Amino acid sequence: MIDLVNVSFDYENGTTALKDVNLKINSGEFAFVVGSSGAGKSSMLKLLLRETIATTGKVIVNGYNLTNLKNKEIPKFRRSIGVVFQDFRLIPSMTVFDNIAFSLRVTDASVRFIRNRVPYVLDLMGLADKARRYPNEISGGEQQRVALARALVNDPTLIIADEPTGNVDPELAYEIVELLKEINSCGPTVLMVTHEHDLVRQFGGRTINIENGTIAFDGYIGGTDES
Amino acid sequence: MKASSFKYLLKEGAKNVWFNRLMSFASVGVLTACLLLVGFAILFTINVNSLVKYVEMQNNAVVFVQDSATEQQIASLEQSLTSNSNIYDVRYVSKEQAFERQKELLGADAGLIEGIEKDTFPASFEVRIKDLSIMVSTISQIETLDNVLKVNASPEVGQTLSDANKMVNTFGIAMIMALVIVSIVIIANTIRASVFSRRREINIMKYVGATNGFIRLPFIVEGLLLGLASALLAFVVIWLAYNGVVGLIEDNSSAWLREMFVHIVPFKTAAPTLAVSFCFAGMLTGGLGSAFSIGNHLKV
Fold first, then answer.
1. What own/partner pairs with CB < 8 Å and gap ≥ 24 does B109-118 have?
2. Which of B200, B207, B214 sits opposite A83 (nearest CB)?
3. Subunit contact B210:A108, Cβ cutoff 8 A
4. Residues of chain B found within 8 Å of residue A51, distances taken between Cβ atoms
């Protein structure tokens, strides 16, 4: 699913963001990536989304070798993953329905399929009555659920969530992680980047700690959540 | 791409015009202003050209015929003048007609020429010169013809008018070109600012796997629509303004202005060219401007 082999990444200004990183995340896993600011989490995400290319080493995601992926193949690769961002990144000119449907439209999905699939995902996320609203007409928590719905609608095999709880209150943050766990139980691999250690401790599971561009810890921690 | 996807993207482009109405308004404003500037420059050049051509047409040469010339020789001279490629109008004025004209010119003082024989004034040909820049050589050619007594012409005036015509053309084209360049720079920056304000939107589309073409198309449609709207707006404004100015000149009591009015190119003559040029320029600038401006933001 995700395979980083001896990956190093240097920025153009010479700053080394990742040093000889080796990481393997298998299909169906749920993993937290934690680390302080500037540790290398964002750089790793950029590599996983093929926003940038590793200076050395090999990055394989969903069977795509991103090190030598051609530009015209990037859209197809990105359709195989679902991404959720801290700042939701919804398109302001589109309704909730259209924001979610956009992920299907880029795949040339039929209108009929879109009309069936989007309401189903909206219903799953508890957003059935928000379909015709614009992003600025719904709350932050709802916006994040729309972003999750958009990431899910294509049935991706991998979901990458970059600080998805960063812009919501603790209660909602808990709900979002629960939702991600639920999604994970249905099959997709989930990689959640966060700096909220409390949340990680609460849920437990595989945790990868990145410090100074290297993996300082990769193992399982027990959760305190008994619900 | 499926037809339904294509239809969706066209609809998105049209929708975005309204959704980003502030930037749309700015783009249409700038594009309309530029089209108006270029349009007025074109109309000004067309009219000055028409006026100079009119003045040129008034530049006649008078070829006086020797009294001794027979009717056959006069006919032969007329034939020679007509066959000259730089002469486009030849009118014969007989001795009697010349006398009558003189009488008319004298008006109340016509009595001064009473008693004078009607064949006192020489017969002549009034000719009109096509290309004033070679007027001098044409006059010389006429002077060498048989039975020509004298040629009355003002080659200096001809040359001046010819130079003026060339100058107006050169200045007009230079002015239009300069305005077109300035307009393109302004429009490109406006579109770039509009696209820049939506770079996040483009970024999101890239993350969900949209191809560059899929992202570009609505922006191009948007640019084309804004270009078309600007062209139509500019056309209506220039139409009203032009007819307003023509109306003012028409109502003016100045004889010179009224004389000039006769030679002003009517709007309906220039309208088809202007409408097509405006639509073409507006849509091309809008569409291409959007397509190119978006390029930098697609590298995600």
1. none
2. B207
3. no
4. 300
Give the pLDDT confidence score for residue A180 in this predicted structure.
93
B contacts of A103 (beta carbons < 8 Å)? 208-209
In whole angstroms, how far apart are CA B89 and each of B54, B58, B85, B136? 14, 11, 11, 17
Under a CB-based contact definition with an 8 Å cutoff, are residues B63 and B144 in contact? no
Domains of chain B by residue range: 3-55+160-298, 60-153
- The CATH topology of domain B60-153 is Alpha-Beta Plaits (3.30.70)
User: What is this structure's pTM?
Assistant: 0.71
Q: What is the pLDDT of residues B62-88, one digit of tens each?
A: 999 998 999 999 999 999 999 999 888
Residue B197 gets which letter from DSSP? T
Are B207 and A108 in contact (CB < 8 Å)? no
Q: 3-class SS at B47?
A: helix
Give the best-scoring range by mean pLDDT among A77-81, B96-100, B150-154, B164-168.
Answer: A77-81
Is A69 within 8 Å of A54 (Cβ atoms)? no
| ipTM of the complex in this document | 0.85
Would you tell me the crossing angle of helices B155-196 and B267-295 to the nearest 10 degrees? 40
Contacts of A89 in chain B (CB under 8 A): 200, 203-204, 207
Q: Hey, which bits of chain B come out as E strands?
A: 60-65, 87-93, 124-129, 148-152
Is residue A227 over pLDDT 60? no
pLDDT band at A225 (very low <50, low <70, confident <90, very high): low
* pLDDT band, residue B130 (cuts 50/70/90): confident
Task: Reply yes or no on whether the pLDDT at B183 is more than 80.
Answer: no
Residue A31 DSSP SS3: strand
